[in-house]
Amino acid sequence: MYLLGYIPKDDRLYLGDKELNIVSYSLLVSVLEYQTAVMRRDFGMADKVLPTIPKEQRTRVAHFLEKQVRKYSKTPFLFFKSNCSLLNVTSFKNRKYTVVLLKW
């Protein structure tokens, strides 16, 4: 596959192969910026980018966050809608949980 280009107004990435088949993929820059900020652990920037992500893409973002929590946490995790940050809390029967707070 060869990269042909990206059209920002369509949010589409275009690729082509040797047989001249063209394939396009949806690529939202705001989602990419958010994921990059989270991977860099720059949660201040992630908080700024999150409101620019369309509501129909928020499930995709939630799945990404869930994978990040599983990757970096050895404790069970809980999701709450509030504010986008990660924290560890000790609660019920002294079990440790990783809590992900999401601001929609």
Q: What do these coordinates show?
A:
The structure is a single chain. The protein is α+β, with helices and mostly antiparallel strands. It has one domain. 32% of the residues lie in helices and 35% in strands. It is built from 3 helices and 6 strands. Strand 1 and strand 2 (12-16) form a beta hairpin. Helix 1 (29-39) packs antiparallel against helix 2 (43-49) and helix 1 (29-39) packs parallel to helix 3. The chain is elongated. The relative contact order is 0.13.
Which descriptors would you attach to this protein?
3 helices, single chain, elongated, 104 residues, three-stranded antiparallel β-sheet, three-stranded mixed β-sheet, alpha+beta
Q: Which of globular, elongated, flat, extended, rod-shaped describes the shape?
A: elongated
Percent of residues in beta strands: 25-35%
What count of domains describes the coordinates?
Answer: 1
Number of strands: 6
Order of strands across the main sheet: 1-2-3
Q: Given the helix and strand composition, which structural class is it?
A: alpha+beta
- Classify the helix fraction into a percent range: 25-40%
**Mean pLDDT across all amino acids:** 76
The termini sit apart by 36 Å
- Tally of alpha and pi helices: 3
Biggest sheet overview: 3 strands, antiparallel
Rg (CA only): 17 Å
Poorly predicted spans: 79-94
Q: N-to-C SSE series?
A: EEEHHHEEE
